[in-house]
Amino acid sequence: LLSFPSTFSLLSCMLLLSRTLPRTNLPRPRLRFLEISRRYPQYITTHSRYPKMASQTFKLNSGYEIPAVALGTWQSAPGEVKDAVSYSLKIGYKAIDGAYCYANEDEVGEGLKQAFADGVKREDIFVVTKLWATYTIGDDKVKEGLEKSLKSLGLDYVDLFLVHWPVAMNPNGNHDRFPTKPDGSRDIIHSHSHVDTWKSVEKLLDTGKVRSIGVCNYSVKYLEELLPQAKVVPAVNQIENHPSLPQQEIVDYCKEKGIHIMAYSPLGSTGGPLLTADPVVKIAEKRGVTPSTVLLSYHVARGSTVIAKSVTPARIKANLEIVKLDDEDLKELRAYSDDLTAKKELKRYVYPPFGIDFGFPDKS
């Protein structure tokens, strides 16, 4: 395969198509980039413009390496996830982040299958999934939750298995993922401890079906409850993280305990509300990159893995462009975060209605 710079390769392909399509007055077909890449692979590069960043990793306390950038699959529309996963792995992504709760792991599995057929090796990628709250009570139920994800993904093991939220919902309720009580509130089993869930997850390491284990959405309060009783320190804590919700207390605590941070919602939320924040725009103009690149690079500069979600080929590719932010850049972003903190204007976009205080300072 050719390895021209990506923009040149795409232009070459489009030029080829313009010369080979019949010259008639009929409208010519508009081919999506993904269709072009499949029909004319010899004209599309499979090398990222940023191979160094695409392959950058962080060492987990489990001994395994986790990539700096992962493709996110949350809220990806049906029919789009398969192509997003297979295309991302084709152009250089090394990690895929998913979850049973997202209700699209079958499609993620189809995308993985396509990528493997195209030559991607299982051992070269890092797959993350999560244990949902209706599968947290008891060893058997936890194991069942893992097995469901493995079956959907078409894998023998996952690289990282995370407890999605430190909460348990009724496993025999009126819905597999979001059981509710007659009054419409979530059907929470308050008597079950998240520590007991973790003890069940620890046992999965002996099965060979998970390589590393971790948690999501854990505050310092919840980690302080967990760690004294844990045999295995979580390898990862995946949290919502961006300049308008830096969660510095959690980031610093996890660093002290050897727990790696994975950052989700790096642009703030759907629609990217942080893309127009003054310091983000200023740094983007200074470096000649997009605001999105600045926000993704912010997390890597902090030593975190960032989850970049998109189903658009051009954006999927652009999200691999991680640039090195200098001390001045990070100082400006910290000042922005500190100002929001002082004004009590921090913004958390993801907080399911469990009716539980998870110990986050901005929500307590």
TrEMBL record:
GO terms for molecular function: oxidoreductase activity. Residues 70-335 form the NADP-dependent oxidoreductase domain. Residues 1-20 form the signal peptide. The record marks 130 as: Lowers pKa of active site Tyr. Pfam families: Aldo_ket_red. InterPro entries: AKR, Aldo/ket_reductase_CS, NAD(P)_OxRdtase_dom_sf, NADP_OxRdtase_dom. Substrate binds at residue 164. It comes from the Eukaryota. Keywords: NADP, Oxidoreductase, Signal. Belongs to the aldo/keto reductase family. This is D-galacturonic acid reductase. The lineage of its organism: Eukaryota, Fungi, Dikarya, Ascomycota, Pezizomycotina.
